[in-house]
Design brief:
Elements (H helix, E strand, L loop, with lengths): L6 H5 L8 H27 L6 H27 L7 H40 L3
């Protein structure tokens, strides 16, 4: 664990390949992202005009984009490309995923507000000729 917290571990230009266990974990995570992107695509098609359409569209884009980025980063690490297999790219990828999930969470928070506005508009339109 001491090596995990060193500067050289994260910012080495030639970090070496994944261990077998970490390679399987990363591929499993990427496979999970691919499955979740397929599921969110199906749900996105079903709810294309509902309140949750932006949420499912954002999740689909999130899962698909991060699966592709993960595959590219894993390929570079597998082939041991000197700079493109650096571990800090994996760290940036993880930080980017967290930031993206935060923005998707902000979409979820706005859904009850949208629902109230739509109900208010329906109530108003009920009395319009």
């Amino acid at each position: 664990m001491g090596n995990f917290l060193t500067w050289n571990f994260w910012f080495s230009a030639r970090p070496g390949a994944f261990t077998e266990l970490s390679f399987k974990i990363v591929l499993g995570f990427i496979f999970l992202l691919i499955i979740l992107s397929i599921i969110s695509r199906i749900i996105k098609k079903r709810w294309s005009r509902g309140l949750y359409s932006n949420f499912w569209s954002g999740l689909y884009t999130f899962f698909l984009t991060n699966a592709i980025l993960g595959l590219v980063l894993t390929f570079f690490n597998y082939e041991m490309v000197p700079f493109l297999s650096s571990r800090f790219l994996l760290l940036f990828w993880a930080i980017g995923m967290l930031i993206w999930l935060f923005f998707i969470y902000r979409l979820v928070i706005k859904i009850p507000e949208k629902r109230a506005r739509i109900e208010k508009e329906k109530e108003f339109k009920k009395y319009m000729p």
